[in-house]
Amino acid sequence: MDFLELAKARYSCKKFANTPVEKEKLEKILEAGRLAPTAKNNQPQHIYVLSSAEALALADKITPCRYGAPTVLAVAHDKTNVFEYPGGAYDSGAEDAAIVATHIVLAAKDVGLDTCWLNFFDPDKAKEILNLPDNEALTILIDVGYPDPAAKPLPNHENRKPLSETVTYR
Known about the structure:
Number of helices: 6
Distance between the termini: 33 Å
Radius of gyration: 17 Å
Shape: globular
Strand content: 15-25%
Strand order of the largest sheet: 1-2-4-3
């Protein structure tokens, strides 16, 4: 499938089958994340793979949005290894983690898995529950797995604004 077909086919899966993700597929999508570009190539990301019963129970304490996924990826970034923007008010940490996560969700779709990008959680509480180091910030959680046969995109999935509403040429 070409890239635009892949991008169109990817959706936020909200119902997963009770089927484990094969190690080979998981490593392939993690490799796609590793290859993602980051500011100054600092690679501040750290990905926690939650797939044991104990780890998934922690994920369930963090968010109600696991939707039965057999694997959750917690994408964090090292706050001490980021590019600081001019002016000092912002840095690249969340953006770098988001680029990594985007590579992961698209690679997952490419190998026949579905994902759900989760931002419905308190990052500070999640950091505490997962016992992350002080220098790391949790940016995103990603459900990963095979879709339940009844899973389908939300009704508004295909509704897209025209480029004329989202792009300005100057």
